[in-house]
Each structure stands twice: as C-alpha cells, then as structure tokens.
Amino acid sequence: MDCVLIESLELETVIGVYDWERSIRQRLTLDLELATDIRPAAADDDLARTLDYAAISQRIARFAAEHDFALVETFAERLAQLLMAEFAVPWLRLTLRKPGAVPAAASVGVRIERGIRPENP
Questions:
Q1: Which residues pair with 2 in a beta bridge?
Q2: Does the pTM of the predicted model rise above 0.85?
Q3: What's the CA gap between 110 and 78, in Å, rounded?
Q4: Segment 16-55, tens digit of pLDDT
Q5: Pick the catalytic residue: 41, 98, 101, 113?
C-alpha cells in the first residue's frame, strides 16, 4: 500500500463546546494519510493518475470554512466520510489537533482510521 501524505495542514473553523468558542474561529492542524497506488502515476508522470494533494487540501479548507462543530470528533468523522466519498479513497488515517485547548498541553485531538487498508500485490 502506498500513501499520499498531507502533514500539519492548518485550518480555521468554528469548533468548541463553550459559548465563547461558538463566536470565534480557531486553528486546527491536520495530518492525513490516504491509501492509493502511486505506480500508475509514477509510470506516466501523470497527476491525473494519483491523488492530487493540492485539490484535497483545498477541499479540506473549504469544508472547515463551511462547517462548524462542537467536537473535534465530529469534524474528523465527517471529513473522513467526505474525503473517502469524493476522492474514492479506500482507507485513510486522519489526525486532528486543536492547539491551545488545554493550557498545559501543546494540543489535544483525535486520530481515526477509516476504510479497509489495501495491500500492494
């Protein structure tokens, strides 16, 4: 299995359970691994035959701008569903962090895996 990686993608969104959080945009950081077979793209040096990380990053930013959730868990789950559907990804691992949410921690967050992890033949 091969993966396309997006690491430390910064997003701005409304996220949080407290009233004051509902009236501001906060920063989230996202790490993403997306299962794919890169061999067809590598053979032809063709972007159309792989996952376009620029397009995926733009879609994630648009998702963050268009939605607001109380929980990072909800954000992560809904984003995973969207990415799997729109980009035909069979498996992904998504780590979502909310920096500054707990004063004594650099960040808090969740890591989820969804789908069936394929193996290369």
A1: 36
A2: yes
A3: 13
A4: 999 999 999 999 999 999 999 999 999 999 999 999 999 9
A5: 98
Please confirm, yes or no, whether 4 is among the known catalytic residues. Answer: no
Going by C-alpha positions, the residue among 68, 58, 61 that lies closest to residue 25 is 68
For residue 114, list its beta bridge partners.
92
Tokens of 45: 């040096």
Output helix, strand, coil percentages for the chain, rounded to the nearest 5. 35, 35, 25
Short-list 47, 79, 86, 88, CA closest to 61:
79
Q: CA-CA distance, 72 to 28, in Å (whole number)?
A: 9
What would the two tokens of residue 102 be?
């707990």
SS3 63: helix
User: What amino acid is encoded at 86 in this protein?
Assistant: E
The β-bridge relationship of strands 26-36 and 91-99 is: antiparallel
CA distance 81 to 44: 30
